[in-house]
Design goal:
Length: 144
C-alpha cells in the first residue's frame, strides 16, 4: 500500500454549477411538507456535488399558493409576528388575514424558516418564486 497517494475532493466552481428550474404545485398539499421539499431544492441537497458552503441550488416556482393546506386548528390559531426593533413596533397578523391578502407570503415565510440562517439564505430566497394561481411569468423556462 502506497502512503503517498493523496485523494482530492471535487469542489465545483461557481461557473460549473448548473441550475435547473422546478415547478411545484402547492394545491391541496400540506404547508410544512411543501416548504421542506422546496427548501431542499433551493439548497441543492439532491445534487451529487452538494456542499454546505456553496450555493448550488436550483430555481423553484411554486404555483397555487392560495390553495395550501394546514392541519389541525392552525387556521384559527396561527399568528405571524414581526417587530421593527423600535418601541411599539410589535405587529401580528392572523393566518386567515395573511391568506386572504398575500397567500404567497405564507409559503415564503415557511420556506425561509427551513433554510439555514447564513449568507446563502438571501440568494437562495431570490431564486424562489411563489405565485397565486396557475399563471406565472416563467412559462418559457419549462417549455423547452
Amino acid at each position: 500500500m502506497d502512503r503517498n497517494i493523496k485523494m482530492k475532493t471535487y469542489q465545483p466552481s461557481s461557473k460549473e454549477i448548473k441550475r435547473t428550474w422546478h415547478l411545484v404545485d402547492a394545491k391541496d398539499k400540506i404547508l410544512g411538507r411543501v416548504a421542506s421539499d422546496v427548501a431542499e431544492l433551493l439548497m441543492g441537497k439532491g445534487k451529487t456535488d452538494f456542499s454546505r458552503h456553496l450555493d448550488s441550488g436550483d430555481f423553484v416556482v411554486v404555483i397555487n399558493a392560495e390553495k395550501i393546506v394546514i392541519t389541525g386548528n392552525k387556521a384559527k390559531q396561527k399568528v405571524y409576528i414581526t417587530h421593527s426593533g423600535y418601541p411599539g413596533g410589535f405587529k401580528s397578523k392572523k393566518y386567515a388575514k395573511v391568506l386572504e391578502e398575500h397567500p404567497e407570503r405564507i409559503l415564503e415565510h415557511a420556506i425561509k424558516g427551513m433554510l439555514p440562517d447564513n449568507k446563502l439564505q438571501a440568494p437562495r430566497m431570490a431564486r424562489l418564486n411563489v405565485v397565486e394561481g396557475e399563471d406565472h411569468k416563467f412559462v418559457d423556462k419549462f417549455t423547452k
